[in-house]
Specification:
Blueprint: H1 2-30, E1 37-42, E2 45-46, E3 50-52, E4 58-59, H2 61-72, E5 76-81, H3 87-92, E6 98-99, E7 113-114, E8 119-128, E9 143-147, H4 151-157, H5 162-167, E10 170-174, H6 177-186, E11 191-195, H7 196-205, E12 210-212, E13 218-222, E14 225-226, H8 231-246, H9 249-255, H10 262-265
Helix pairs in contact: 2-8
Length: about 270
Amino acid sequence: MKKFMALLLVAGMTLSLTACGGSTDTAKTDQADGKDTFTVGFDQDFPPFGYVGDDGEFTGFDIEMATECAARMGKKIVLQPIDWDAKDMELNSGAIDCIWNGFTMTGREDEYTFSKPYVDNSIVYVVRADSDIQTEADLAGKHVITQAGSSALSALQDESKADVVNSFASLDEIADYNTAFMNLEAGTNDAIAVDIGVAQYQLTTKADKFRMLEEPLSTEQYAIGFKKGNEELRDQVQATLDEMAEDGTLAEIAAKYKDYNLDQMLCLGK
C-alpha cells in the first residue's frame, strides 16, 4: 500500500511539474510569438556593418544598432551569421527574424516587409591603386567580381547595364567581399562592384592597395528586411528605431564609424 501511495505521489508531482513547465514554455512562446529572443541574420564578412572584431566577437554598425534595439524591446539578441546567397531561405524558414546588415531595399520593396530606410548607400567600383582603370568604360575586357546575391550584382544585372557587363571579360560572383578584395589585391580580378561603406572600410585600412572610381554604379537605401507580412515585428522594431533616432542614439552609434562616412550616410531621423 505504501509503495502504491508513493507511486501516486511521484506521479502527481510529475504532472504538477509538467504543467508548470508547460505553462512557462507557453508564456515564453506567447511573448510576441516566441520572441523573447530577436534573431538577426547578417553577413559576418561585411565590415563596417557586420564583422568579427579583434576580440573575436561580432561587431559593426548594424550589429550595434540591432543590439540596442533588442535591449529596448526587452528581448535577448541572437546574432546569426548567414550565407548571403541563402538569406531568403533563412528568413522564410523562420531561422532568423530579420535581415539586418547592409540590406538594400531598393528594387526589393515587394519581396519583404521593410522598415523605413536608415542609410543612404551607393554601389561603387574599387580597383587596385596602380590600375589604369579610371571610369566604368575602362572596365571593358576586364575581370569584375561582386558578391553573390548582392545589390551590386542586381545593379549590374539591370537592363541599363547590359552593354557595360557584356564588355567585361568576366563577371564573377563570390560568397563574401573579404575574399573579393583578396582576389583584387592578388590580381585575379581587376575591379570589385561593392557597397561604398565596405569600400571605405577597405580603403581606410589599405589605402595604398586600392582606390575607388569617382562615379557610382548605382544609388540605393538600406533597410531591415522582415518576412513578407510580418508587420507586427516590423512595427515594434521601427518604433524602437524611431525612439533611438529621436534621443540621438543612432547618431552616436554612427559617429563611431565616421571614418567610413556612416555618420553622413545615416538618413533615419534626419
